[in-house]
Amino acid sequence: MKNDNRMTLTQFLIEERRRFPQAAGDFNSLILNVALVCKRIAGHVAAGELGGMMGSASATNVQGEEQKKLDVVSNDLFVQGNNWGGYLAGMVSEEMDLPYHIPDHYDRGPYLLLFDPLDGSSNIDINISVGSIFSVLRAAATDRPPTEQDFLQPGKNQVAAGYALYGPCTMFVLSVGSGVHGFTLCPQLGEFMLTHPNMKIPPETQEFAINASNGRFWEDPVRRYVDECIAGKSGIRGKDFNMRWIASMVADAHRILMRGGVFLYPRDTKDPAKAGRLRLLYEANPIGYLIEQAGGRASCGGHPVLEVKPTDIHQRIGLVFGSKKEVERIEDYHAHP
Ligand code: AHG
Ligand code: MN
Ligand code: MN
Ligand code: MN
C-alpha cells in the first residue's frame, strides 16, 4: 500500500515543532482541529444534493453577499470545532459580523484564528471545487477577550496559514513558517498524508487568471499587463499566454502553487466603496503567506500584501499573486505607469 511510508499531518506537526523546544501542544491542537473541521466540511461538500445542504441560506453576510447554506454550516463547524480547545483567544470569519469570543466556560489560549469557511461558495451548487482558508495570529493577551484591534495585524505576523481544497480529492495545504506542504486526504484512513512536501512556485509562467468581465473597471497598469499577455508572441512578451479562472480563489491558488501562474483580483472602480473584491485578513493574507513561503510573491499592486496594516476586520483589498517575476512586472507597471 503506497500510504504505508507516508507521514501523517500529526507526525509532520510533531517533527516540525521539535525544532521549537518552547512549543506547547496548543499549536498542534489548533492545526489538527482545523484539519478535522475541514474533513467534516469535505463530507458535506462530497454529499452534494444528497446531503440536503445545497442552495441559499436566505441570509446575507456583513459583506452584503448572499450566504449559501454551506457557508453557514461550514462557519458553525469552524466555531464549534475550535472554541473548546483552550488554544484560542478568539476568531474572525467572513460569515460573522464581529469577532467571536470564547465562551466563559472554556479556557482562552494564545492564538487567534481567522477564516473563510467556504471559499468559492458561488460554485458549490454546480459541483466545482471550493475550499476553506485559515490564518493564525498570536493574541495580544489571554486575560481578556480580544478586541477588533487585536486582529488588525499585518500578514507578516502570521504564525501559520493554510487551506483545504475540496476538489476531486481533498487536500490540506499548510505553512507553519518553513515552506509549504501539501497533504492528501486518504479515504481509507481518514488522515491527511504528506504528498506534496516543499511546494515551490516557478518564477516564470505563461498562465494568468483574472475575471476579464471587469476589464472596463481596471487600473491602467493591470490593463497594460493583461493586454500584453493577450498579445502573446506578437507582443512585447514574445510568448503566448493561457488564461484560467475558476472563481474559487483557493482552487486558482492551488493551481499556481502546483505549476505556477499569476492571479489578479485588482482594486477596480466597479464599486468605489470597496477597495477590491477579496478580504485582507482571511483571504489575501493567508494565501499571500503561502505564496511567499513557496517562493512566489503576493502584492496589492503597489506593495507587498503582507506589509499592509489592516484597518477593519472585513477590509477588502486588491490582490495579485503567483510567479515572482510576473508579480514584480505588475508592481513595476504600478510604480512606473
Ligand atoms: P467567497 O465565496 O468566500 O465569498 O469568495 C469568492 C471569491 C473568490 O473565491 C473568487 O476568486 C472570487 O470571489 C470570484 O469572484 P467573481 O465572482 O468576480 O469571479
Ligand atoms: Mn462569500
Ligand atoms: Mn472567499
Ligand atoms: Mn467564503
From TrEMBL:
Stretches assigned to the Fructose-1-6-bisphosphatase class I N-terminal domain: 7-197
EC number: 3.1.3.11
Key words of the record: Carbohydrate metabolism, Cytoplasm, Hydrolase, Magnesium, Metal-binding
Cofactor(s) required for function per UniProt: Mg(2+)
InterPro entries: FBPase_C_dom, FBPase_class-1, FBPase_N, FBPtase, Fructose_bisphosphatase_AS
Keyword presence, Cytoplasm: yes
Classification via Gene3D superfamilies: 3.40.190.80, Fructose-1,6-Bisphosphatase, subunit A, domain 1
Annotated cofactor note: Binds 2 magnesium ions per subunit.
Residues bound to Mg(2+) 1: E94, D116, L118
Chain ranges of the Fructose-1-6-bisphosphatase class 1 C-terminal domain: 201-334
Keyword Metal-binding (UniProt): yes
Quaternary structure and interacting proteins, as annotated: Homotetramer.
Record-stated family: Belongs to the FBPase class 1 family.
Stated name of the protein: Fructose-1,6-bisphosphatase class 1
Annotated gene: fbp
